[in-house]
4Fe-4S dicluster domain-containing protein (Sporofaciens musculi), 575 residues
Amino acid sequence: MVNLMIDGKQISVKENTTIMEAAAQNGIPIPKLCYLKGINEIAACRVCVVELEGKEKLITSCNNVAEEGMVIYTNSPKVRRHRRTNVELILAQHDCQCVSCTRSGNCSLQSVANDLNILDIPYKKVLEKRPWDLSFPLIRDSSKCIKCMRCVQVCEKIQGLGVWDVEGTGSRTTVNVAGHKTIHEADCALCGQCITHCPVGALRERDDTEKVWSAIADKNKTVVVQVAPAVRTAWGEELGMKPDEATVGKILDACKRMGADYVFDTTFSADLTIMEEGTEFLKRFTEGELKERPMFTSCCPGWIRFIKSQYPHLVRQLSTAKSPQQMFGAAMKTYFADKIGVSPEQIYTVSVMPCVAKKGEREMELFHGEYAGHDIDAVITTRELVKMIRSAHISPGTLKDRESDRPMQQGSGAGVIFGVTGGVMEAALRSAYYLLKKENPPADAFKAVRSPEFQANDGVAEAEFSIDDVKVRTAVVSGLGNTRALLDKIERGEVHYDFVEVMACPGGCVGGGGQPIHDGKELAFDRGQNLYCLDEKAQLRFSHENEDILVMYQEYFEKPMSHKAHMLLHTEHVN
Ligand code: HC0
Ligand code: SF4
């Protein structure tokens, strides 16, 4: 242990504890902007400076270790003066139009400036905006970038892609796409992790809320909304709701009150995906068609973008099943449109997703008879949903639990856990067991694919199951850096699997790039536990028992992997 004094308090901490952590452990918060534990500890912002007795120069607390006998002041006049100057210099290079900023009210720079009572910015630089294609789902605004380097590090260290880098020199230094490429030329997976780790509003998703409001206002459109599994775990965070109050039923109610004609839960089509992807896996597996193993899941568009740019030769090992988002869109514009007697053109499909990559995935085409268009017309993130609820002045306390509309109403617990890493695999195994044995396994028989800690074991959970004499070797991975390491092992022949689930975001969609932002806190694990609780409490635990799905097959798609299912629910992944 190391003994030191911070702000007059005698404390003891373990060796190699930074001053910032030592202070935090003892209830003394030190402000910071660039620091991200384990990812970005480079003291770029110098907001965390503290005074060390006996030393003229202030030191940064995020990357200096507490030493025996140190006497530290975190809030002396000298510290306050320097911290203030450092923040003023950052503000001088920042577009401070907070009223029109997406992060207003949830911005670390705004909070630090307010806490320091900065009422005027003495320095001012003419800000230069770098060009950006505003039609791309991910937007960087260089005039808001504070060069904290978090996006550079998250993309490099966690996602293993290195899309961002420092550009320019001196006062023209900024962060931009690496190698002077455009964002289209870079290998951006659109996972959005740079957005959720940005302390300010320099990175954001393309705002699609106006498109949705216009469709709602258009009397010729029937607006049909679906809400993804992971959204229910997080939407209430920004509205001051407790996790058990913020139900999916209330999101459906909010969407109806905002003017949606029909509202559905994506867990319905997660069950549909299991029917298609589970059947495809068993077919490829038992009929010997799966020569190249493993088969990879295909529902995460961040992963699809990653495999296409980084491992194009493995693309043919992806399942051909479309994601639940896309399958639902296709079913809405065909089966459902028939049911309510409107044409596919009149249906306007909106999805509420925890994800930025889903905005890119919607570009996928839907061909149906005369109709050529898209499965999905607009994708909004959980954050955009919250903005819409706010702008409609809906008070969360007045929302009631509403059921999904018919006839695509049911959703199983297996569908709910799609939103957490391992969930797709677990759901698929529950139904694969049934398809092979014609009886259900215990609902929790495949719990081994759950990761106790997402980042433990490099984010990989391996499990092997025997169903009679059939042995299935599975792996589940989340985070693209972890995925790269796993794919390299598979390619080197060090590990062998039959079926692998990949989710681009650490922890799966619960940690998605479109979820509410809590600077410096990783909430994916808690949100994931919330989904497991919902599954445990669900009356229906198996996708193959979803009666609304069974009726839809009877009335429309015939059976999994039928010709119609093939045309509408599957896709060919091409590079
Ligand atoms: Fe996901 Fe999905 S689980 S990718 O994370 O498969 O976005 O929540 O909607 O499509 O269901 C996201 C979440 C989905 C899809 C589902 C899958
Ligand atoms: Fe989107 Fe989920 Fe994939 Fe992240 S893990 S990119 S949120 S689908």
